[in-house]
User: Which sequence fits this backbone?
């Protein structure tokens, strides 16, 4: 595939990524994506044969972005507390989107878990990237149960994001991030 | 409406309640509900003109059930710690459904928040029932910030349910419920 093909493919995946996040996977049609990517449906089918294929590409894109972000923190901050604080504060970096649409990983996984179990398994890989990275930080802190602590932190962040978006409440989000930072400092 | 009408209406709302929980609101069609309630579509339209109307009835049903449950705990256990422990342990009472489909309140609200903001406002009333009851328990414990503590507990329970269902992990769920019970005891 030449440069133009790569470019079109990337446009489709970027448009789908945003639509799946903002509207949900099931509420986004093939036509919605073609329109947002400004491609004709015929042209579009050249790149993707089904919405499931696009979802796989979107998940791969999100995984790459997530890995890059987590790796940059590991590189910039050797100290695990600092890494964990970056993770917790990510909820404030993305606050306006989180308060409006929830967590892109949590909301997608929850939606797919209802009726699309096969696709859900792919989406869980996004959680796995985060969980493994968190477990690594917890291990470096020599905690007794690093796997359990990683799952606990992930769960609390998910709950805070969900309730923050349900109530569209930035003050709640800030307070809970502060609480989590204090928790991280005590580890 | 006579007894038969009441009965048919109730059958529709019960069937829709389960389908919305198991499949999601958007993935459930009018026909799915009619079929599950074993009514013809014509008969069905006599009771409900739209899926939105059914959702309102489902939300009212869930609210009544939730209120009855919370009130029974307040009645049976005068002591707020005991009430809060019942709330936390509700996650284990419903564990098989929670591990498969997530929280009925959280997953519905999150789904509707994407593209159906008007309906989402109705669904948030379910969270409000819980939040207000939790705040009442926290107030009776004479905590400094009962509203904030209520939101915090609600958020953690949502996150635990979400992650428990993502990983379909009963051991994680039990461990986190134990952690929350210990947290409640320290209040």
Assistant:
């Amino acid at each position: 595939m030449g440069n133009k093909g790569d470019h079109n493919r990337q446009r489709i995946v970027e448009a789908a990524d945003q639509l799946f996040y903002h509207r949900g996977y099931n509420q986004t049609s093939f036509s919605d994506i073609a329109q947002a990517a400004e491609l004709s449906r015929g042209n579009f089918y050249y790149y993707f044969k089904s919405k499931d294929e696009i979802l796989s590409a979107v998940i791969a894109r999100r995984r790459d972005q997530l890995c890059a972000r987590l790796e940059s923190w590991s590189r910039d901050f050797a100290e695990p507390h600092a890494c964990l604080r970056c993770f917790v504060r990510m909820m404030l970096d993305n606050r306006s989107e989180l308060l409006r649409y929830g967590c892109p990983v949590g909301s997608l996984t929850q939606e797919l878990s209802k009726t699309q179990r096969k696709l859900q398994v792919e989406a869980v890989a996004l959680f796995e990237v985060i969980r493994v990275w968190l477990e690594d930080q917890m291990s470096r802190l020599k905690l007794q149960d690093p796997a359990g602590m990683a799952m606990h932190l992930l769960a609390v962040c998910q709950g805070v994001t969900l309730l923050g978006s349900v109530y569209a409440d930035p003050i709640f989000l800030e307070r809970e991030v502060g609480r989590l930072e204090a928790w991280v400092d005590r580890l």
Remarks:
- The radius of gyration of chain A is 18 Å.
- The mean pLDDT of chain A is 94.
- Chain A has two domains: 1-49, 59-186.
